[in-house]
């Protein structure tokens, strides 16, 4: 009886019905030390894992330049890592712990893990520098992130947060501040690096609203650099070209009243 209802290939999509998935591409970041970090990018992912952003490159340079005081022996969390170059550079430069995170999408997490694995030979082992990868939605429970920190200082949080090109997501500002509050160690030295480019310059005022919100959440905001890169990332986009070539860098630390 069952054979009478055999549909054969009736519901099979014809060959070529769906467009083929875009093949992943690769990008390289040349470190100031001369080492090259090569990362795989997600082919055409809507969450922007498909390119190496200027803020990621400049963040990596800033981390490398300031590694002796900022990174070596520290516990580092990157939020919205995409390909993860700043995390990889942190691990290479001797962070005790680096946790690379982005939205918990399987393709993004798998790609971050691929890049972490590909960089393993560049990461020091004496003393060991541990690089971990996981998905994380901004504002969610941070206990799974804190568990990567060695047990003796796990309850204190991370020394450094890396937040490159995340504040363009205006509706997520509150969740970003919440994540900072839950993960950044409460010391004068602990710092969140917020680095971004206004790819849509007319939205810059909305992007900059993040900083008063962070101040209201217990942080001080200090602008540490403004760097003009050689060319825009998206050549056909409208708006002020100079702004689209500018990378802004800020350090956010706990306010004194939060440390008492």
Structure description:
Helix content is 26%, strand content 22%. The protein has 260 residues and is α/β, with parallel strands linked by helices. It has one domain (25-254): Rossmann fold. The strands form two sheets. Strands 5-4-3-6-7-9-8 form a seven-stranded mixed beta sheet, sandwiched between helices. It has a two-stranded antiparallel sheet with strand order 1-2.
Please tag this protein with its features.
cytoplasm, two-stranded antiparallel sheet, alpha/beta, 7-stranded mixed sheet, 260 residues, Rossmann fold
Write a compact overview of the structure shown.
Helices cover 26% and strands 22% of the residues. By secondary structure, the chain is an alpha/beta fold.
CATH superfamily: Vaccinia Virus protein VP39
The rounded Rg comes to 21 Å
Q: If you consult CATH, what is the topology?
A: Rossmann fold
In sequence order, what are the helices and strands, one letter per element? EEHHEHEHEHEHEHHEHE
CATH architecture call: 3-Layer(aba) Sandwich
Write the layout of secondary structure elements.
Elements: E1 25-30, E2 36-41, H1 54-65, H2 67-70, E3 75-78, H3 85-92, E4 97-102, H4 106-118, E5 130-135, H5 143-146, E6 160-164, H6 173-183, E7 191-196, H7 204-207, H8 210-216, E8 219-228, H9 241-244, E9 246-254
Parallel strand pairs: 3-4, 3-6, 4-5, 6-7
Antiparallel strand pairs: 1-2, 7-9, 8-9
